[in-house]
Amino acid sequence: MKTDYFKGKISSLVLALSIFTWSQQIVRIKDVASITGLEDVQLYGYGLVVGLGGTGDRTQTVFTEQTIGNMLKNMGIELPEGHLRVRNVAAVMVTGTLAPFKRKGTRFDITVSSMGDAASLEGGTLILTPLQGPEGVVYASAQGPLATGGYDIRDRGLTHIKKNHVLVGRIPGGAIVQKEFLFNVLDGRDISLSLNNPDFTSALSLADAVNREFEKNAATQFVARALDAATVSLDYRLIARDSLKNYIDLVSFISRVENCMFTVSSQARVVVNERTGTIVAGGEVRISQVAVSHGGVKVEVVNLPEVVQPQPFSLGRTETIPNPEMVVEEKDAEMVVLDGTTTVSDLAHALNSLGVASRDVIAILQAIKEAGALHANLIIM
After folding, report:
1. What is the mean pLDDT of residues 330-334?
2. One domain, residues 203 and 220
3. Are residues 228 and 284 in the same domain?
4. pTM assigned to the model
5. Would you say residue 314 has pLDDT above 50?
6. C-alpha span between 361 and 280 (Å, rounded)
7. Taking the CB of residue 246, how many other CB atoms lie within 10 A of it?
8. What average pLDDT does range 283-296 have in this prediction?
9. Considering its fold, how many domains does the chain have in total?
10. What are phi and psi of 30, to 5 degrees?
């Protein structure tokens, strides 16, 4: 088999190195930080989905039958043991996230996932299911019809048509808050910001931005102080003690803080995904002077079957026998010298000139890191 096709594939390959100038980027505080104590709360619950067209749990899933029996018993219906055979019901886990300041009676979305051996949750309806938090307190209840976004059609033969994953569904607005979660009370005494990506330089820059925003209100004192790489404390009392003319209420204070712009900083990183061949590198990644050589040997076995005919008037049959042929191709190694001021953009152009596939680029980056020339954290997913 000719290798022109593979050469064309390699030559047309574009090395995808997404370049960001993250360490010099100016962002809003609310985009990279959040108020400490106002985190989301994850809820979960165990329930039943009914109304399935024979695609529910089978008899091997014992806990589904036990749950149905207990539910019917609570409703005053007694069934003889061993007479429960239901294929239209499936046991599921219900999960959702309760956002801060969700008041009683408000709704939020939930996800419903099959626990047993059900074939599909398509067309099912979740019956009333309590949702509890990590400490076991019930904060919401869920109920409603599922939307799976797909289908799974089977017949008694070999035909099987499936679209998307039908064992997981969502119910938009399917959960109602029954008990409000006691978040950190915003009383102005203990307010702090938490950076999503801890960094000392970013924390100092954030505190400076907040202090510049309120320098007229807080006189000579600092409103914000960086406590560590992730936490910046805010002293609202300095603003509250100001004159009535310049008084700022707590909600307005937090709003102004969230919309302050500051320069965020981060560590230089190169992230590679070996399974997909994806490479993402920051713009501040630097490479010392290093020589890169790429080349290899390609061994290909091609099977060209040969047809053998029997002699005339014989009792033999026409047979096809394999005829393997081995093709060995050695690619000439090329060497590129990268200067000490090389950036990710320069590296991308240099490796493209070598005709390197993305998976080979990952191996080259690992070798450059081992050589001590890649000044960044190399993260392999």
Report:
1. 57
2. yes
3. no
4. 0.64
5. yes
6. 12
7. 10
8. 70
9. 3
10. -65, -15
First to last CA, the chain: 35
Q: Are 233 and 227 in contact, with CB atoms under 8 Å apart?
A: yes
pLDDT of residue 176: 96
Residue 22: pLDDT band with limits 50, 70, 90: very low
> Pick from 124, 153, 177: which residue ends a domain?
177
User: Is the domain of 49 the same as that of 159?
Assistant: yes
**Averaged pLDDT score across all residues of the chain:** 77
**Whether residue 135 sits in one domain with residue 211:** no
pLDDT given at position 332 = 58
Percent share of the chain, pLDDT over 70: 71
Residues 118 and 156 in one domain: yes
Structure tokens at 69: 């029996």
Contact 236, 225 (CB under 8 A): no
> What's the whole-number mean pLDDT along residues 366-372?
81
Residue 150 CA to residue 141 CA, distance in Å, equals: 26
- At 193, list the tokens: 């910001």
Four-residue CA torsion sign, 182, 186, 190, 195: positive
Q: Can you tell me the distance from the alpha carbon of 257 to that of 120, in angstroms, rounded to the nearest whole number?
A: 48
Q: Which two tokens stand for residue 8?
A: 């064309």
Domain coverage including residue 55: 41-177
341 pLDDT band, cuts 50/70/90, is low
| 125: enclosing H helix or E strand | strand 125-132
**Same domain assignment for residues 288 and 349:** yes
Query: What average pLDDT does range 123-149 have in this prediction?
Result: 92
Q: Within this chain, do residues 372 and 281 fall inside the same structural domain, yes or no?
A: yes
Give the DSSP per-residue string, 275-325. Answer: TTTEEEEETT-EE-SEEEEE--EEEEEEE--EEEPPPTTSS---EEE--EE
Instruction: Please tell me whether residues 96 and 148 are part of one structural domain.
Output: yes
- Give dist(CA 255, CA 262) in Å, integer: 15
What gap in Å lies between CA 179 and CA 136, rounded to an integer? Answer: 13
**3-9 contacts at long range (C-beta below 8 A, 24 or more positions apart):** 3/298, 3/300, 3/327, 3/329
- Cβ proximity of 291 and 375 under 8 Å: no
User: Rounded to the nearest 10 degrees, what angle do helices 250-258 and 200-213 cross at?
Assistant: 130
pLDDT of 93 > 90? The answer is yes
Q: At which of 156, 177, 198 does a domain end?
A: 177
